[in-house]
Amino acid sequence: MFKASELARRDFINIVDGRRLGPVVDLHIDEKGSVTALVVRKGRRYFGLFRWGRDLIIPWQQVKKIGVDAVLVEMMPQE
Prior knowledge:
Layout: H1 4-8, E1 11-14, E2 24-29, E3 35-40, E4 44-46, E5 50-52, E6 56-59, E7 63-66, E8 70-73
Parallel strand pairs: 1-8
Antiparallel strand pairs: 2-3, 3-6, 4-5, 7-8
């Protein structure tokens, strides 16, 4: 069991290509209270204010391992 705030402090790494995906900024939760997806901030900020790029939604089924320092996910690279 873990807190949602703990996820925000962990690195999210794609095991397919080894890339760091970014920080979690939101969770999708169903009516039963189960997490169905993670929303990862994808994009850059300009002077900490303006952000461009899309957020990445990671379905919970693609989360393979939650470790102490990192979360491993399996996502195929987008063309």
